[in-house]
Write a structure and sequence with these properties.
The termini are far apart. This protein has 184 residues and is mostly helical. It is globular, with a radius of gyration of 18 Å.
């Protein structure tokens, strides 16, 4: 058996890796600006589940990807409320909205960083190994943190639900899976 780094130490490494990304512009994706535009659209009284961001005056200046111009949002009601709230708080600053969406995504990453090692341990797998594979990898960090994708919240909630299921907390587990489904 090799000597593994302690989970707590790896969680600190994760924190050090993601902190600079919180204030950096999004990398490899402009979806976060589409989230902002969808929230603005929702604030105007339009329904983003039936209307694309192209109906929002100045949508292109916000930074939304043209791919979303005519496409209604595929996101669930909980994420629509997050979009609306962040858009309301950040308006007219799309950069601030991006940071706030990234902070929301970090909640999901934090849930993953806490519960993936615990879930792994429940099944006899080294928690630090699971943390390396499941969270401390470039794909997760670039997609969930830098890209501020809402999948982070959904995945974090599902990992929490799986862990609760292993602890015989099945009602909480089912409720959290249901909540995760309202994100995306």
């Amino acid at each position: 058996h090799r000597n593994a780094w302690p989970v707590r130490q790896l969680q600190w490494v994760l924190l050090m890796w993601v902190v600079p990304l919180v204030i950096a512009p999004p990398l490899f994706s402009r979806d976060v600006y589409s989230y902002y535009a969808q929230g603005r659209l929702f604030e105007t009284g339009a329904d983003p589940t039936t209307t694309g961001v192209g109906n929002l005056p100045g949508w292109f200046d916000i930074g939304a990807d043209p791919m979303w111009t005519e496409s209604p949002t595929p996101y669930g009601p909980s994420f629509l409320m997050i979009e609306r709230t962040i858009s309301s708080v950040a308006h007219p600053n799309a950069y601030l909205a991006g940071i706030l969406f990234r902070l929301a995504s970090l909640i999901g990453v934090a849930l993953m960083a806490i519960y993936i090692p615990k879930l792994a341990k429940a099944y006899g797998i080294e928690g630090s190994t699971a943390l390396w594979i499941g969270v401390l990898n470039p794909l997760v960090i670039m997609h969930f943190v830098s890209g501020a994708h809402n999948d982070a919240i959904m995945v974090g909630l599902i990992v929490l639900a799986l862990y609760l299921g292993t602890c015989q907390q099945c009602l909480w587990s089912a409720a959290i899976v249901g909540f995760a489904a309202t994100i995306k």
